[in-house]
Amino acid sequence: MRKIVAAIVVSVILVSCSTTDSGPAVKFKDGEQAVPAGYKSWPKFLMNVQRGDAKQVRDIYVNPIGARAQKGQAFANGTIMVMENYAAKPGADGKLIKGELLRVFVMGKGDGWGGSAPQGLKNGDWVYAAYLADGVTKAPEPAVTCRACHLPLTKVDYVHRYDEYFATRDGGVFTRPAGGGY
Ligand code: HEC
After folding, report:
1. Closest ligand 1 atom, CA of 107?
2. CB of 117 closer than 6 A to ligand 1?
């Protein structure tokens, strides 16, 4: 009998640790999701995003679960996006030249993760984390600032470059709406 109980306990542990399409069984809160090892080999979301206003260039990656999303859909639970923020300065042609890595930002979503959001700042089931260039040391930016700035984007699953991603991934041309939006 004891053996059977032990077997059940072991299998429950195994099941609860496994990763499925509905996302990992662990529920992350803001600041908890680590920078995933090997994210640089993930599908590219957008590279070399020019942020002249912030004097930065950004490279964004999405994990394979997220890359399966189709335009018009929300990203599935289990999606993770990693954004590298680089210092940059304008080159002779006006394009920004990438300098040192400043920050690594992570946003991920999983079943029920949004439940931990502070009141009024629930971005669906996304949670946020920010790291210094080493990808390990927590950055000082509080996650509520991430939430506040991504919050209005309800129509595009809280993802700023949603339209640009699908347009360029699917071989189209992206025209930035007049007046910016970014
Ligand atoms: C002031 C507004 C603002 C704040 C604050 C902000 N973001 Fe964003 N975020 C953006 C914009 C705009 C983009 C699109 C890329 C770009 O233009 O730099 C973006 C893109 C991203 C992306 C890539 C997916 C996407 O939405 O296109 C991730 C991941 C991300 N942000 C994470 C974070 C995290 C983590 C924080 C907090 C530490 C944060 N962001 C804070 C505005 C913001």
Report:
1. 29
2. no
Residue nearest to atom 32 of ligand 1 (CA): 105
User: CB of 62 within 8 A of CB of 80?
Assistant: yes
Terminal alpha carbon distance of the chain: 62
Q: Given the CA of residue 85, which atom of ligand 1 is nearest to it?
A: 18
Q: Where are the domains of the chain?
A: 27-169
Q: What is the tens place of the pLDDT at every residue in 132-181?
A: 999 999 999 999 999 999 999 999 999 999 999 999 998 877 776 655 44
Q: Which residues contact 108 (CB under 8 A, 6 or more apart)?
A: 28, 33, 79, 80, 81, 126, 127
Contact 60, 45 (CB under 8 A): yes
The stretches in the chain having pLDDT less than 50 are 15-18, 180-182
Give residues with Cβ within 8 angstroms of 15, minimum separation 6: 25
pLDDT given for residue 21 in this prediction: 56
Superfamily of domain 27-169: Cytochrome P460 (3.50.70.20)
